[in-house]
Design goal:
Chain lengths: 294, 206
């Protein structure tokens, strides 16, 4: 949505300066997901599909609550239901609303070769611009959370927009509006971090969750979606939330040193053969018969 | 033309030029995805989504051409003791002091290296390209393949670009008569005698 009133911070595959970068004062926004008060009602999933007018997918039934196995190009947020055996015996329901984390240092954007297909707004929202997407799926490789999903029909990649269209006009994302328990919050990153820390402290001091904490992974520069987890030491138990997500180092090498080495080698090669020709010139075949040296 | 020697059959020339044209297309579209400063190439070639669609299909055709050349030239591309003797004097070849070089057969060591580099780099490009073609089908547990494929694809592509620059330069600017030979297929006896003396003896019986 290039017409978005949100100021732009970063643009994928873009040569030259970013138009409007730093020209506006916009606060970082964040979504807070308190997994300790999620009841798995899936209202956020429905609200997401309604607001974004996404077509329905078939559900599956395998005797669990997980009626949708994974997020999809037309299913951007999904509660992951995990029955977690606690060390002290009983099972624990861990429900986590999965979706784009809106990384401050987005691996999808770093990997994307298409000019303007992925933008990061100054408020921190990372948004795919399908008009400019070329369907290469490098974002799939760059993302440590397995979020971008490819639509083979249109050959475009989709994911949660954090309702950038709603946020741009001062509304909260649709999922926030639908949550009946108040486990979803939306506001500035500072406010959400403070709220999350308060909640985690409350859990540690007034409940059995002595390891409660806030998930805001520094490996991707922090995220625009933060979690309160009952057990911050074991994020993997929440349906594969990575303990230390990072942009793949090979993406960093590819977009950094390898690019410069490659450019040097290619330009050096062209200059090299030119200099060789100037110094040594062509080989003479010793006669001027047909097919030989002209 | 009487007095000339057939260096490349029609089939060899056709496949060479199919491979050459496809390589240029795959190179151009690949460079467009390699650098934002070269992204305009994809626009020129029909748009970036179109380029992304055709790049892997064209690459398959390129690899098929490579396999054809492997079948056709395998015997001629084996590196022999004569090549090793020639290779020890390669700096003379680079300095155009060809009269001091030991005789060689149909292809010189540089051409053979070029062939094997393109074949092996092409195989790496093909395998890594398959991962990049359909990254979503790679299971999450094997996701290490995705970033590994990116590094392998870019590195081996750069290797082929280096080889390609030298190949085009040698074939057009330096070895006069080489370019004509891959178009019309014929070389003069003097050309054959100077550049590929063992081959000249073999095909002419002289």
């Amino acid at each position: 949505m290039s017409a978005s009133p949100l100021g732009i911070q970063k643009i994928s595959g873009h040569a030259g300066p970013v138009p409007g970068q730093g020209a506006q004062r916009q606060q970082q926004v964040a979504k807070l997901i308190d997994t300790t008060t999620c009841i798995g009602c899936k209202a956020c999933e429905v609200a997401c599909m309604e607001w974004n007018e996404l077509p329905f997918r078939e559900t599956v039934f395998d005797n669990t609550y997980q009626t949708m196995p994974d997020t999809a190009w037309n299913y951007w947020t999904l509660i992951r239901f995990n029955e977690h055996p606690r060390e002290d015996g009983p099972f624990q329901w861990l429900m986590r609303k999965d979706g784009c984390m809106h990384c401050a240092d987005p691996g999808c954007l770093a990997a994307c070769p298409a000019d303007g297909a992925i933008v990061q707004y100054q408020n921190g929202i990372v948004d795919f611009q399908q008009d400019a997407c070329i369907g290469c799926q490098y974002c799939v490789t760059g993302c440590p959370f397995n979020i971008p999903k490819f639509n083979p029909g249109t050959k475009k990649v989709f994911k949660c927009t954090l309702c950038s269209d709603r946020v741009a006009v001062g509304l909260e994302p649709a999922c926030i509006k639908a949550c009946p328990t108040g486990c979803l919050h939306f506001g500035t990153k500072d406010d959400m971090t403070a709220l999350a820390e308060t909640r985690a402290r409350q859990l540690r001091e007034h409940s059995a969750h002595a390891n409660a904490g806030v998930y805001d992974p520094p490996g991707v520069g922090g995220t625009g979606v933060i979690y309160v987890l009952h057990d911050i030491t074991n994020p993997e138990a929440y349906g594969g939330l990575p303990a230390n997500p990072r942009v793949p180092w090979s993406v960093r090498i590819w977009k950094g040193p390898l690019k410069w080495l490659g450019n040097l080698a290619m330009i050096g090669g062209l200059i090299g053969v030119t200099l060789h020709y100037l110094r040594f010139g062509p080989k003479h075949a010793g006669d001027d018969s047909p097919g030989g040296q002209a | 033309m009487s007095g000339t020697i057939l260096r490349y059959t029609l089939a060899e020339r056709v496949v060479h030029w199919i491979a050459a044209i496809i390589y240029c297309y795959v190179l151009a579209t690949g460079l467009a995805f390699y650098s934002p400063h070269l992204y305009w190439i994809a626009t020129v070639l029909g748009g970036a989504p179109t380029s992304r669609f055709w790049h892997p299909w064209m690459a398959l055709a390129f690899f098929a051409a490579l396999l054809w050349m492997l079948r056709a030239w395998l015997a001629d591309m084996r590196i022999t003791p004569a090549d090793r003797a020639w290779g020890r004097e390669m700096n003379r070849y680079v300095r155009n002091e060809d009269e001091h070089l030991p005789p060689i057969d149909r292809f010189n060591l540089g051409q053979k290296y070029f062939f094997w580099v393109m074949l092996w780099a092409g195989a790496v490009l093909l395998l890594s390209g398959l991962v990049l073609w359909i990254p979503e089908r790679i299971p999450w547990s094997l996701r290490i393949l995705r970033p590994a494929a990116i590094l392998l694809h870019v590195s081996s592509a750069l290797v082929t670009i280096g080889a390609f620059i030298i190949h085009v330069y040698m074939g057009t600017a330096v070895v006069r008569g080489g370019f004509t030979s891959i178009i019309r297929g014929e070389v003069s006896p003097a050309w054959a005698k100077q550049h590929h003396r063992l081959w000249y003896h073999r095909v002419t019986g002289r």
